[in-house]
Amino acid sequence: MITLAVSLTCLGAKVKEDSLHISNPAVTQLFSELDYLRGNHSDVIKAEEEAKKALESAINNHKEVKVKIEQLKTVNDGYEKQMGALRIEKTNLKSNISALGEKFLPEMTRNPLFLSENSCDKCAPGWILFNSSCYFFSSTESSAVKRNWHESRVDCVSRGSDLVVIDNQQEQVVNFLINHQDASQLSTDFWIGLSDSEEEGTWKWLDGTFLVQGYWNDGEPTNLNDEDCAALYPRVNFFKAWNDVRCGVRRKWICEKAPESMS
Questions:
Q1: In this structure, are residues 220 and 242 in contact, taking their beta carbons and an 8 Å threshold?
Q2: Tens-place pLDDT, residues 197-222
Q3: Residue 187 burial class via C-beta count within 10 angstroms: exposed 0-12, middle 13-18, buried 19 and up
Q4: Minimum mean pLDDT among 49-58, 75-84, 89-98, 239-248: which range?
Q5: Listed GO molecular functions (predicted)?
Q6: ω into residue 221 within 30 of 0, thus cis?
Q7: Mean of the pLDDT values across residues 228-246?
Q8: What CA–CA distance (Å, rounded) separates 182 from 153?
Q9: 89, 171, 183, 239: which has the fewest Cβ within 10 Å?
Q10: Domain boundaries, the chain
């Protein structure tokens, strides 16, 4: 009986020893996997922290952008208010200029001594002295009389002048006078001494000089239906006030001549 017990004890010890010997590689693999998972966990935690920082930075940037947008909106609102005030001021100025033109221009055209900066020059009655030249607007004699381009030139020649030559920006202010001569007749247009009847597309003044600087309206000249003569139209922007027109059409006209010297 004792011998049997000893034998069983030895057998159990041998089985336990064999079990531990068999399980050691599995334990090693488990520890390896555990170390791997721990490393990956550290990487995940690090990536999570970096993501949190990136998110915080993005949130801060978003807040800064929102602040800048609000600031820009405030500035834009200020500009809009300024633009509105300028538009109102522009409208008021145009009204005031128009009223002044209606009030004083008729008196100036009737004054034979309407002077420019040169007090030694004068113009005949019905003519306007401006920029060292005398200008005659046919509308000052009759708002109903209109002539074609050639007839208008004949009339100017009979007055010792010719159709107006606009060869610099200062003389283009004549259109400003027209624009405010009569606010009820803004559709009125006037012949000027410019045509391309000799050679299509080559615009030439009556004094023989070629056009250097033109003040054409947008899209002009068009040369539709042999439009070989130039007419000046009242415009708010008097540097875009010319159209080409058929020479046979009847229009009002502007004459120009040198002033008379006062003795």
A1: yes
A2: 999 889 999 999 999 888 898 889 98
A3: exposed
A4: 89-98
A5: carbohydrate binding
A6: yes
A7: 84
A8: 23
A9: 89
A10: 29-106, 128-257
